[in-house]
Amino acid sequence: MAKDPYKYFRIEARELLEGLTQGVLELEKGVVPTAVVARLFRYAHTLKGAARVVKQPGVADAAHAIEDVLSPYRDSGVPLSPPSIETLLGLIDKMTASVSALGSADGAARALQPIGLAVEAVATAPPVPVAGDPVPAARAIPAADEQLETVRVEIRELDAILDDVFQAGTQITGLTVSEASLAQAGRIAKALIDQLSARTTTRMTSVPLERARSIAEELYTKLEELGHCLAQTRDQADATIRLVRERAHRLRLVPTSTIFPALERATRDAAQARNVRVEFVANGGNNRLDGHVLQSLRDALLHVVRNAVGHGIEEAAERARRGKPAAGRVLLEVEQRGHEVVFTCRDDGRGVDLEAVRRAAVARGVITEAGATALSAHEAKQLVFLAGVSTSSEITELSGRGVGLDVVRETARRFKGDAEIHSVVGRTTAIEIRVPVSLSSLAALLVEVNGVTFALPLAAVSGALRVQTQDIVAAGGRESLLHMDRAIPFSSMSRLLGFDSNGVDRRRAWSAVVLRAGGRLAAIGVDRLLGTKDVVLKPLPEFAGAAPLVMGASFDADGTPQLMLDAVALVNDASSALDRTSERVQQERPPILVIDDSLTTRMLEQSILESAGYEVDVAVSAEEALEKAGMRSYGLFVCDVEMPGMDGYGFVTTTRADAKLREVPVIMVTSLNSPENRQRGLDLGAAEYIVKGEFDQGRLLQRIRTLIG
Hints:
Elements: H1 7-28, H2 33-53, H3 57-70, H4 82-100, H5 105-111, H6 117-120, H7 145-149, H8 155-197, H9 206-251, E1 253-255, H10 260-274, E2 278-283, E3 288-290, H11 291-312, H12 316-321, E4 328-337, E5 340-347, H13 354-364, H14 369-374, H15 377-381, H16 405-414, E6 418-424, E7 428-436, E8 441-449, E9 452-457, E10 461-467, E11 473-475, E12 478-483, E13 486-492, H17 493-496, E14 510-517, E15 520-526, E16 528-536, E17 550-555, E18 561-565, H18 567-574, H19 580-588, E19 592-595, H20 599-611, E20 616-619, H21 622-631, E21 636-639, H22 648-656, E22 666-670, H23 675-684, E23 688-691, H24 697-708
Parallel strand pairs: 2-4, 9-18, 13-15, 19-20, 19-21, 21-22, 22-23
Antiparallel strand pairs: 1-3, 4-5, 5-7, 6-7, 8-9, 8-16, 10-14, 11-12, 12-13, 14-15, 17-18
């Protein structure tokens, strides 16, 4: 394959184009132009020279045209006019397209042609857009693929690595000294052997015995000193080499600030398309990520900032009515949390219209109308990540096709991260994207399952539990347990991995790892927790036929491979929905209302019923239950007896006297186990009376099926 003659030119050109873009956007904000214009002159001049070296006259002419546009502002201190800003950005776009075309032979041939806009654009700058003008086409964003895959290293970072390598070399020299001491110990041992061998040739006297004892003591002392020396030198060398590895790993990561200019440019162009004013602010550019991860995130974040402008930022009149500044604000904050980098894009716009999102999802067919209505506010917001869901009433260049935020979540999950949306109506919307700092080096929790060691991404670990057999509730082919006052799915890892196809082993307690992924929690049962460790993750070859749960492998000190499991896949499998038949039955069955003042009991009963395919509401008192029953029709009440205020007996009496509620059966679940209490409940009209101490979920579900199907 022929060597690429434009590789280094593309890298340099893209960096210079990025600098030009950033500088022009600064000038558009009205900063004092003198220093910025001088910097842009240097960028344009450097790019012009580089382009001529590789025989790219079109790029060179455009760079020269940029110098012509900037020349009147070089020493005047006068802000650049809007037409000049537009001309500069147009020239940058043309050069960006030309540089990108150098990636292929035919593209290189096209790039050799002069850029038609280069010189004449100075005289024919477009007018300033005004309200009512046609929306300008979306501008090209400088491609940074190759730039993000190529790392520019600071000298001080290289110096630090060289210092560490020097220290490691010094410590290895110390091992050479220890090697000499080891040779000396060998000679002492040989002398001892010679002394002891004298017993076979001469009559043993006290002199050779004393001499042998003295040699043995000297040998012991020397070996002890040598052992301490080797251990100390080994620890020092290990620490130094680990530091070198960490520094070298950091060198291959790219600062997140690399993508800020493209995002600011996209925000600016989207704002112009809508004729609104928007300020873009970015913080946290010193955080670093793998280049190919950052490259994909840049593309996803382009959708996010355009969405913020297209859907969030109001027009000036509406912002004035709401008491907001005339210019909207899009804030991108990047921070490292543990072993993850978090991108939060926040705007001060109108927020998410939940009803519009629900309607759009129903219209798209991704959820039923009843299902959309039943979603919590947080769950409804997450619908915007589904493909095709858009709240825009018309199709524009910025919105309306439902393409964008689905890419965001898909990108995050592709890199073992996730995305969430938070919003306050009328005030703000924030989209948060979380990804690991690096997919090649991860902090892991090691666990043992069936005698095999597996690794889990530590960033996904929310906690650990000791689970007893009685803590696990099985219903509808799925297990769950109570964690932090909520029911979460439980599954043994051995079953998820196919080691155990017979369900949960109920003969023993479990160590359970609570994993968080996609805003959901699941508890995964393992045999033992082995501790945490930083691992270097390697992808498995395609022919290995890895299971979907496996995201890669690392090697322990003995060279034994250890599989790293995908937390998202584990949570999804443990939380897998019931089969379609159960879902259809759930839609046909009326909902059930669980009434109990005990949070634990409510959550447990809700988990059992939902796992069996029923829709469940909960109430903390009989009074609240009567209020809910007045607003919604239920097929069954599951009610405690001992509650503050109206007790269960009073609830049964009240519902049996109500014309609307008397036909709704009541199952009483209580700790009162005397025959008198039971008979009283049945006499008042309860359909079933179940004692908590004798609770049998199978009996409960069987009775419910008898009553409502």
